[in-house]
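To illustrate the input format used throughout this study, we show a single complete record. The first block contains the structure-token representation of the backbone; no residue identities are included at this stage. The design step must infer an amino acid for every position from geometry alone.
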């Protein structure tokens, strides 16, 4: 087993780290405060090839490996995890769903602009009555002889207000429930698509999350992704990849908060000595460094499973769980170690703590990950 990153992986990690410092860090506090997405920085990520990292060149991707993409999400999320999730939803969920399951025509039509950052994608599965129970979707897409007519409301859609394209899951045969669910690419420009309520969130405040409403949207047959009635499997397979992306976001938050705490313990003097002279704090940092490294290895293992064509559903669920728990644990310990300063916005860790919470919830709560993992143990 080789624990060293390749030269290419190190180079992508460095380039992304620099971009995060120059393009994201200067405005991250303001973006969080104002709930504003840094669109120019995202476009630059696209121009630099980051959005398309793990995809074949024939669709406008970079042909890099999956671990390189994971490293990039991690570096972005260390600084601005709102951009981290926007990136992951666009790359893992929207583009990943097309790569896994769409026709050649759909891949060629939609991927190049999304992978170059000119357009944005989103993933529309969740509904008010279908959260953890993803099979409870009520949105319908009924064939009228010429097109599928889409009606329904999707909620908590990351990138919703910004996205040009949606990967939408809807019932083409409502009687059959899960077996009647199908997937479609829907364009925001199609008549009948609108953005509903834009959410006011605790964390990831500069990511844009909203309802998406479909009213008699006529979707052409060729926009179906995968076979009719196989939408649930399309969504589940796609979410396996998405969970690796969220794990990378979580690990990025954990590392970002850890780095700030480490520096603070060196710089801050109390009782006539730097904070790190208190063994309680250094032991705490030792524990957090172990937790981060454990999470990192589980994440990189899941990425390698995907990259090398092994089954990655379970390793992705495990990685999502440990990395997002690490994000929460490390960020809240960092706030505590920074004391009163940790509670102030300019020290960044309070934002990281707010951002960390959602990583334990979306793309399958960590309880759902336990369901996935335990299901494999007793099958
Ligand atoms: N890959 C491919 N197929 C899969 C699969 C996978 N990983 N997991 C399940 N399937 C298939 C099964 O094989 C089965 O197919 P057959 O009927 O043909 O045998 C079918 O899907 C149903 O499987 P289950 O019986 O296991 O499904 P379930 O109803 O018990 O639900 C669940 C399983 C794991 C709880 C699932 O509902 C789930 O993952 N829930 C969480 C939903 C979720 O993650 N939502 C995230 C929303 S997206 C989001 O947050 C994005 C964002 O904007 C940030």
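Output of the design step:
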């Amino acid at each position: 087993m080789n624990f060293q990153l390749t030269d290419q992986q190190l180079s992508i990690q460095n380039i992304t780290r620099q971009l995060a410092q120059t393009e994201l860090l200067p405005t991250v506090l303001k973006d969080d405060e104002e709930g504003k997405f840094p669109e120019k920085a995202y476009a630059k990520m696209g121009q630099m090839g980051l959005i398309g990292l793990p995809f074949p060149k024939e669709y406008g991707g970079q042909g890099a490996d999956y671990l390189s993409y994971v490293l990039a999400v991690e570096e972005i999320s260390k600084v601005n995890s709102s951009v981290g999730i926007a990136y992951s939803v666009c790359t893992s969920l929207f583009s990943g769903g097309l790569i896994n399951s769409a026709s050649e025509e759909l891949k060629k039509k939609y991927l190049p602009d999304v992978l170059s950052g000119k357009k944005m994608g989103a993933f529309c599965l969740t509904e008010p009555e279908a959260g953890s129970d993803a099979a409870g979707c009520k949105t319908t897409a009924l064939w009228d002889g010429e097109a599928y007519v889409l009606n329904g409301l999707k909620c908590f859609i990351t990138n919703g207000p910004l996205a040009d394209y949606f990967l939408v899951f809807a019932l083409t045969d409502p009687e059959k429930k899960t077996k009647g669910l199908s997937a479609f690419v829907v364009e925001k420009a199609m008549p009948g698509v609108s953005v509903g309520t834009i959410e006011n969130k605790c964390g990831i405040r500069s990511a844009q999350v909203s309802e998406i409403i479909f009213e008699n949207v006529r979707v052409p047959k060729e926009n179906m992704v995968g076979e009719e009635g196989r939408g649930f499997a399309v969504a589940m397979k796609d979410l396996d990849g998405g969970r690796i992306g969220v794990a990378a976001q979580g690990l990025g938050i954990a590392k970002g908060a850890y780095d700030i705490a480490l520096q603070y313990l060196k710089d801050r003097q109390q009782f006539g000595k730097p904070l790190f002279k208190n063994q309680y704090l250094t032991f705490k940092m030792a524990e957090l460094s172990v937790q981060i490294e454990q999470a990192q290895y589980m994440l990189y293992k899941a990425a390698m499973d995907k990259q090398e064509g092994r089954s990655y559903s379970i390793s992705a669920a495990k990685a999502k769980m440990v990395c997002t728990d690490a994000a929460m644990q490390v960020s809240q310990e960092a706030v505590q170690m920074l004391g009163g300063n940790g509670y102030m916005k300019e020290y960044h860790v309070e934002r990281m703590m707010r951002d960390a919470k959602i990583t334990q919830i979306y793309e399958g709560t960590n309880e759902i990950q336990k369901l996935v993992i335990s299901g494999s143990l007793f099958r």
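Structural context for interpreting the output: Residues 122-232 form a domain with the Butyryl-CoA Dehydrogenase, subunit A; domain 2 fold (CATH 2.40.110.10). The radius of gyration is 21 Å.
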